[in-house]
Each structure stands twice: as structure tokens, then as C-alpha cells.
């Protein structure tokens, strides 16, 4: 497949690029600093989400899958998350893109009926703004009338640097935990699950949770 990845230089985005490359997919990376991104066999194009006048559609040629791996933490601009979701749903149907896969957050997952992870006392305060922003983006997707097929992929409560085990479980709206009550996934296995979903298209217009 031909993928275009927004946020390809980020921590999660770079793992998705590496996993997709390892399976033979063709990748175009959209990054702010074109001259600082040097990944073999990846086409690189400059794009800055903060520039509202940037022509996103003009950067898309024959790619059919769009991956968005963004967050507002680095720039302290959390509104960019929801705004980007709206922008992609509006603009991508006018291109060759057939599917949008979004790197989501875990905060909006339910830990009990009508209780989200973000609303529990244990949720780290430093991640709250980011989690709220991702929850707003999820609402944008769920209430969208865009013809574009989307998938919002939430990681476990803890996503950490770790080896690829090539194993994971998937869920929907509930937080996935193990027998000890932990919710974890390595960034490498999150990328495995993400690219599996690109290939299998098993969660069209749905949220998908990923954890061990």
C-alpha cells in the first residue's frame, strides 16, 4: 500500500513508519523540518499544521491511506488535535485517500460504566490536557458525516519503549487490562497493531483499543 504519514518524525509515528516499511509499504512522510528527517526509502514532504494556509491536498498524489500521529504537547497547542481531525475529514475526501487512521489516546476509554480513565483520581495531571484534546478529536470522528473511512486507535493506559513481541489484544470503548489489572503496550507492538489495521481494515469508522 501507499501511505502518507503526518507526524512521521514523532515517537509513535516513527515506529509506525518503521513497521510499515518492514512490510514493504511505500511511505511519504509529512514533517515540519524537512531537512532534519532522513529515513532511507521514505519520500519526505514539508508540512506545518500550524500554517492554516498550507495546501494539504496538493501534497497527496497516489497514496490511499493517511496516518495521523500528532499531539499538541510539544507546542503547547492542544487545540490543534481537534482542529486537525476536522480538517482531515473535510479535505481528504477530495483526494485519493480512502482511509484515515488516527493515533489516539487512552484517556477516553471506559474503566467502568460511564467512567472514563481520564476521570479517575489516578490519571496523571500532566497528561490531562492531551487526553482531553484526544477525546475531543474522537467526538469529531464519531459525529462526522464525512464520507472518509476512519479508525481511531487508542493505546493502553501505558505505552512504553520496549521490544516487539508481535502480540496484543484489541477492544472498543473499554480499557483493556491484564489479569493484574495493568493496561500496557510497547510502542513497537502498538505499531504492529496499527499496521495490521491498515492491512486488514477490521475497524472501519470505529475506535479500536490496543493492549497486551
Alpha-carbon distance between the two ends: 27 Å
Number of helical elements: 4
Strand order of the largest sheet: 3-2-1-4-5-8-12-10
Q: Which series of helices and strands comes N to C?
A: EHEEEHEEEHEEEEHE
Helix content: 25-40%
Report on the biggest sheet: 8 strands, mixed
Radius of gyration computed on alpha carbons: 16 Å
Structural class by helix and strand composition: alpha/beta
- Oligomeric state, counting identical vs distinct chains: single chain
Low-pLDDT regions = none
Percentage of residues in strands: 15-25%
In total, how many beta strands? 12
Q: Please state the average pLDDT score.
A: 95
Morphology: globular
Describe this structure in words.
The protein is α/β, with parallel strands linked by helices and 212 residues long. The protein has four helices and twelve strands, in the order βαβββαβββαββββαβ. It has helices at 11-22, 79-91, 128-142, 187-200, and strands spanning 2-6, 26-31, 43-46, 65-68, 99-103, 110-112, 115-116, 149-154, 158-160, 169-171, 184-186, 206-211. The chain has an eight-stranded mixed beta sheet with strand order 3-2-1-4-5-8-12-10, sandwiched between helices. Strands 6-7 form a two-stranded antiparallel sheet. It has a two-stranded parallel ribbon with strand order 9-11. Strand 6 and strand 7 form a beta hairpin. Helix 2 runs parallel beside helix 3 (128-142).
Amino acid at each position: 500500500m501507499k501511505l502518507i504519514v503526518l507526524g512521521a518524525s514523532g515517537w509513535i509515528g516513527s515506529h509506525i513508519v518503521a513497521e510499515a516499511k518492514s512490510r514493504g509499504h511505500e511511505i511519504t512522510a509529512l514533517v515540519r523540518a524537512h531537512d532534519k528527517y532522513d529515513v532511507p526509502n521514505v519520500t519526505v514532504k514539508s508540512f506545518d499544521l500550524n500554517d492554516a494556509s498550507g495546501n494539504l491536498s496538493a501534497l497527496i498524489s497516489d497514496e490511499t491511506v493517511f496516518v495521523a500521529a500528532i499531539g499538541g504537547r510539544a507546542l503547547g497547542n492542544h487545540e490543534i488535535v481537534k482542529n486537525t481531525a476536522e480538517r482531515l475529514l473535510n479535505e481528504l475526501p477530495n483526494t485519493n485517500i480512502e482511509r484515515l487512521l488516527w493515533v489516539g489516546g487512552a484517556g477516553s476509554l471506559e474503566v467502568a460504566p460511564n467512567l472514563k480513565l481520564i476521570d479517575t483520581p489516578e490519571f496523571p495531571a500532566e497528561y490531562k490536557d492531551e487526553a482531553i484534546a484526544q477525546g475531543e478529536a474522537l467526538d469529531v470522528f464519531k459525529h462526522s458525516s464525512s464520507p472518509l473511512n476512519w479508525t481511531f486507535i487508542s493505546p493502553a493506559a501505558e505505552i512504553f519503549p520496549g521490544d516487539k513481541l508481535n502480540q496484543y489484544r484489541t477492544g472498543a470503548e473499554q480499557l483493556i487490562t491484564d489479569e493484574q489489572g495493568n493496561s500496557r503496550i510497547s510502542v513497537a507492538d502498538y505499531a504492529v497493531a496499527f499496521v495490521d489495521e491498515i492491512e486488514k481494515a477490521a475497524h472501519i469508522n470505529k475506535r479500536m483499543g490496543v493492549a497486551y
